[in-house]
Amino acid sequence: MRVPDRARAEALLDELCARPPVGEPRTVDRPLLLYGAGNLGRMARAYFATLGIPLLGVVDVAAARHRADPVWRGVALFAPDEVSPEQRATSLLAVCIATHPYAPLAERLCAEGWADCVPFYDITEAYRDRHPLGNGWFATDLTERDRVGMRRVLTRWADDRSRAHHLQFIAWHRRREEWVFDDAPVTVDDRYFIPEVCERLGPGERLVDLGAHHGEVCERLLALLGGKVERIDAVEPDPDHLVRLDVWRAALPTALRARVRLIDAVLGAHPGPTRFRAGLGYASQRAPGGAAREQTTLDRLGLAPSLLKLHLEGAELEVLEGGLETLRRHRPIIAATCYHNALGLWRMTDWLATRLDDYRLLFRLHAWCGTGAVIYALPRERDVAKQDRSTP
């Protein structure tokens, strides 16, 4: 499809909303195999181990290489041609690949005799009462307020590519359809650092990284700016991740290390007691059954970001709400994931548009299967900074 303008985007949205929803959570009712031994496959293995659901093994075209990886010790790895026709016909194949389109892959697997293939995240929705991972949600019960809100947000985007990616995101969660638009590719390698962000960055940035994980975003900013940052505040409440962050920071040059601070904090809209479930890798988050923690807010941390990144497993909007004073005072570039729950359909964007003046809003997809969606908010005064840096 062609990238839609506002009028065409609204018509496509109306078409989506008028059609019945498709899909439902999938329980594991057959012998289970994973397809893909990359990062998502690793997360899926840990996920099923936490639930006590056994795996027959993992299928990957590079199985021979992955067998040497200690991560997969004790797990059978198969090349596709090593799985018997009988096994293909009787197994449930959880597809653990989000860096490529799902539909053509599923079509090929079906042609190869796999009788029952589903995206991994469709399975996670069936076990939300036992594990908080929730990227596979279904937009089944859209209200009139949701429809109006999504239409309004389509008009708020600063470019047609945002409208295309937003519709692609809605189509997956509403219908499990993979809409693809010409000139609006899904880019998997530039999450948080799209060209519109990079061209506005310069020496002296102050990064606040909420959900810093192992420091990947911090490291990328340092590489992009040649280490010329004023400060990095990496906020991460998972103890395992904090250990990894500390190792990463310790390896930095002394002068640079002094400008990087690690902050152990659980954030929300308001201070108070909460529960944080650690030890879940990428999926660690506030959730029932987690350890008792005291929650604070971005405003209470007293930070001064020029660049704010949020990846908080669905808590992004609450944390923005608890940081409104910080956002208005320091007017950072914002990059916030929005795919962990239905707040990404329109409420997060609507909140940003109505709380922050003179910002340009963009929506980009950096993965498939309804994941990897990021909202970018660019303060218009940084447009001037961009022009200044490009002037000879």
TrEMBL record:
Top-rank lineage group of the source organism: Bacteria
Keyword Transmembrane tagged: no
GO molecular function: methyltransferase activity
Keywords assigned by UniProt, alphabetized: Methyltransferase, Transferase
InterPro entries: FkbM_mtfrase, SAM-dependent_MTases_sf
Leader sequence residues: none
Record-linked Pfam families: Methyltransf_21
GO BP: any one term: methylation
Domain Methyltransferase FkbM: 209-335
Protein name as it appears in the record: FkbM family methyltransferase
Organism of origin: Marichromatium gracile (Chromatium gracile)
